[in-house]
Protein: Pilus assembly protein
Organism: Croceicoccus marinus
Amino acid sequence: MALMIPVLFAFMFTTFEAGNYLWTEHKIIKATRQGARYVARLPFSSFNCATGTVENATMLAQVKTTMRTGSPTGAGSIKVRGWTDSDISITVSCISNSSLGTDKGLYTSKGSAPVVTVSSRVKYPAIVGLLGFDTSNTFVRSQAQAAVTGL
């Protein structure tokens, strides 16, 4: 029995760490998808296809805050410890109307169809890091794309 206790503790701790990683990854993936949907609903005038950026800085800040806290005002708590706005990247790429074929839908009057890419690269807050193990190079990454609908 005395030989089993260290093995059981190691197994139990590994299970906790794996569960924490999966839960953290799930929260980041879900928030990244939510951020892509949020940006995709901004008006077409908010996007600059030439520079690949979102022009509305206030809305961009709200998107990042919503991803991290679940609220545009930042009223909620941060979903993942250590997640900052600098960990979030939002870019725009534009697909030419000529490559869309004959059925352009809501992009008929536009010169191109903007597609938003939202990416997150968050330092993983590992449980083993609290015990002194080096986890400085452990990150959770997520990326989501959405076509801009301008609604």
User: Anything to note?
Assistant: The chain is about 35% helix and 25% strand. The chain has a mean pLDDT of 85. The radius of gyration is 20 Å.
